[in-house]
Amino acid sequence: NLTAVMIIFLILIPFLLLTATFVRIAVLELSLPSLERQRQAVSTPPESAVLNILLIRDDGFQLKSPEMTFAALPKTDEGYNWQQLGEQLERVKQKYPESEDIFISPENSILYETIISVMDRCRDAGFPNISISGQL
C-alpha cells in the first residue's frame, strides 16, 4: 500500500512545481516624510524647501509650484500628455535646482500603473524624493 502512495507523490510533486506561478515583487524606494527632514527644511533657505505638487486627475495633470503658473494638461486621444508633463517638471527643476521633493496627489479613480509612470517621470526630471498624498 505504501508503494501506491509514493507513486502518487512522485507524480504529484513535479506537476505542482511545474504549474506553480511564482510571484515577482517589485520594490519601490520611497522616502517618507520624517521629522528630521522637516527640521532641515525649516532651517535651510526657502529655495531648497520648494513645495511642488502634482495633481493626477481623470482628465489630466495639474502641476503647482511657487511663483510658477502652469496650465492644466488635459488628456489627449492617446491618454495622458507625458511629454508636456516632463517639460513642466524640467522648467521647475531649472528654476529651483536645489529642489528634490515633489508631492503627488492622485484622485481615487487613478490606476496604479499611472501613478507609477508619474513617479518615474518625476525621478527622471530630478525629483527623487516623492511623497504620495490624498487629494488637496
Polypeptide structure, described:
The N and C termini lie far apart (69 Å). The chain has 136 residues and is of the alpha/beta class. It is elongated. Helices cover 40% and strands 16% of the residues. The chain has a five-stranded mixed sheet with strand order 3-2-1-4-5, covered by helices on one side. Helix 3 (82-95) runs parallel beside helix 4.
**N-to-C SSE series?**
HHEEEHEHE
Percent of residues in helices comes to 25-40%
Percent of residues in β-strands? 15-25%
Low-confidence stretches: none
Q: How many strand units?
A: 5
Contiguous helical run count: 4
Biggest sheet descriptor: 5 strands, mixed
The residue-averaged pLDDT reads: 81
Which assembly state applies to the chains in this document? single chain
Spatial ordering of strands, largest sheet:
3-2-1-4-5
Task: Quote the distance from N terminus to C terminus.
Answer: 69 Å
- Category by helix and strand content: alpha/beta
Supply Rg: 23 Å
CA-based shape: elongated
Record keyword descriptors for this entry.
5 strands; alpha/beta; 4 helices
Brief digest:
By secondary structure, the protein is an alpha/beta fold. Helix content is 40%, strand content 16%.
Record the SSE blueprint:
Elements: H1 2-19, H2 35-43, E1 53-57, E2 60-64, E3 73-74, H3 82-95, E4 101-106, H4 112-124, E5 129-132
Parallel strand pairs: 1-4, 4-5
Antiparallel strand pairs: 1-2, 2-3
